[in-house]
Amino acid sequence: MSLAALQADFRHWLEQSDEAAAARLGSDRSAGLAVYQNNYRAQLMACLVDAFPQTLAWLGEAAFESAAAHHIDAVPPSSWSLDHYPGGFPATLAALYPRDPEIAELAQLEWLLSEIFVATDAWPLTLDMLSEVDWERATLRLVPGALTIALSTNAAAIWTALNAGEEPPAAALLPEEEALLLWRQGFTSCFRRLDADEATLLSSLADGRAFADLCAALAADRGEEAGLQRAGELLARWAGEECLASSV
Amino acid sequence: MIDPRFSGFGLGLRKPHYAAFLDGSADVDFVEVISENFMVPGGRPRDILRRVLANYPVALHGVSLSIGSAEGLDRGYLARLRALADEVDPLFVSDHLCWTRTGGFNAHDLLPLPLTEEALAVVCANIDQAQDALGRTMLFENPSSYLSFVGSEMSEWAFLAEMTRRTGCDLLLDINNIHVSGHNHGFDPRAYLAGLPLDRVRQIHLAGHSQGAHLLIDTHDQPVPDPVWRLYGEAMARLGPVAVMIERDDNIPPLEELIAELDIARAHGRQVVAA
């Protein structure tokens, strides 16, 4: 058997408990093959448990492990980094629990926070830097890794309660989607809810829009004075929260 | 530039012990980190690494190179490892004699290779590629294994010896892995040591294991047991300058317990020098 064929058979044994593949690897190898398969599955299970503590708390241990086992069967790892493996789990949860959308949204929130945790470092724009910026030309951008998402359920409130060790609220669909900003402040991943106009403005930052354009959009929506006042409020808040990169 | 004949006693960087490595109070000569844990764009892991580097020399120990993959190496992975190594200027860059990846699948476990001429040729070609990409000599660790393949054509020590001869790579000798594999496959650990080019051993791992139903399992969750200490003593009597460390990955005790275990390793080293 060639090395490539041996490695393909070993893969099929690990992924699918393929007995024919195991037999080709050696009929008297069952004890050793069992060790490797146990290691493979145990490592992926531990990875998912570590990555989704609040989703586990919400689902309960038995349901979480059942879903994780399903995911391990359905989605074999492909990346060089085990840290990338949990990224597909929210989609598996969405498929397993179509009537409980808060579960997948909770898992997605946990996954995105963990991705932001290791995003590229950047100096944030801070309040004391605002006076030095040429606002006629400035283009705002979020710190690396920061993003906005929209949730249809109260998953964010569930995460917050569970993370604080408090009793979570009952799952609920929201009357309208809730926009969240996720970013890293210092070395801590965080998120907060966004007002509707703020969500629209922040999502447009990804397009590299000038601050002057944002002011104009707010002025058109609220009138000149109120629009500029709102722009100032938002800018001060974003700078205070260190969610904007400093090179504006 | 780091002394190519570094000798000293170290520990793996594990989260429960971060504080002592960050303030420099841990009594070790070097620290080994898992490369992949720090092959990330930024955030706290990179900050931790920078601060540990301010206090200790660091060795990079990888688990995902997959040097035995028949399909070759992942160039993206190599580029990331190169970037990390350039930033860290590590004592060593090491990985394992194993494979983890085939056909877009990554097992995240150190899977065994058949000890064949074909596998040797694959491993050596991959090592040449990795060392060229990194611009460094790498160390490869002897694995623990739980099965051997029909058709193997040589002993593991003969495989390792020929691998170092062909590629110029060095060895990370895991004493516990020799003991575990010796038990599982029925070879004499002393014959293993005798068959290795010990002048190529730059680093030693010491660890504990667990007894499975039929096999010893390399769990790294126990203190170093007596048979491993004895084999370590025999190895140290024949080695030149070498970096020695305790590798504990699970059931991690307080740092003081690992330092006490490291003191046993230091004492063995002194006994060997005295002899």
TrEMBL record, chain A:
Q: InterPro entries attached here?
A: DUF2063, DUF2063_N_sf
Q: Cite the Putative DNA-binding domain residue spans from the record.
A: 6-91
Q: Which Pfam families match?
A: DUF2063
Query: What is the protein's given name?
Result: Putative DNA-binding domain-containing protein
Q: Specify the species.
A: Sphingobium ummariense RL-3
From TrEMBL, chain B:
Cross-referenced InterPro entries: MbnB/TglH/ChrH (IPR007801), Xyl_isomerase-like_sf (IPR036237)
* Taxonomic lineage: Bacteria, Pseudomonadati, Pseudomonadota, Alphaproteobacteria, Sphingomonadales
Family, according to the entry, reads as follows: Belongs to the UPF0276 family.
Pfam families referenced in this protein's UniProt entry, alphabetically: MbnB_TglH_ChrH (PF05114)
Q: What is this protein called?
A: UPF0276 protein M529_00365
